[in-house]
Fold this sequence. Notes:
The chain is mainly α. It has helices spanning about 5-15, 20-25, 30-35, 45-50, 55-60, 65-70, 75-80, 95, 105-115. Helix 2 crosses helix 3 (about 30-35).
Amino acid sequence: MSHGKQLEQKLKELGIKKKELAERLAVHPNTITLWLGKDILEPSVKQRIADSLDLAESSIFYSAQIKSLTINEPESVYGEVSVHSKPLKKLDAFQYCGLLGIKEDGLELQRKWRGEW
């Protein structure tokens, strides 16, 4: 469920109108309307909202996707299973890490790698 829907649900549960929340946050009421339509809110915005409602951020905003991941599902993190329609492209991190200690020019390596990506 999107952050906007979660916020809307919590406001209904608490009986708080958008205008009242806007006054508590010192923002225009249209800003609240925009937030209610967003899938993901910035962490600073979520914290301000939680503080204005005197609630823990986790009691308003939760992520079902994060809760569904377990330690036994590393594929979900590394791109084997993806929330996107296509699997994520895998990059060999060892190919691009730790090479600066070899006394190579870092800027030249960066240019080379950009071409490969």
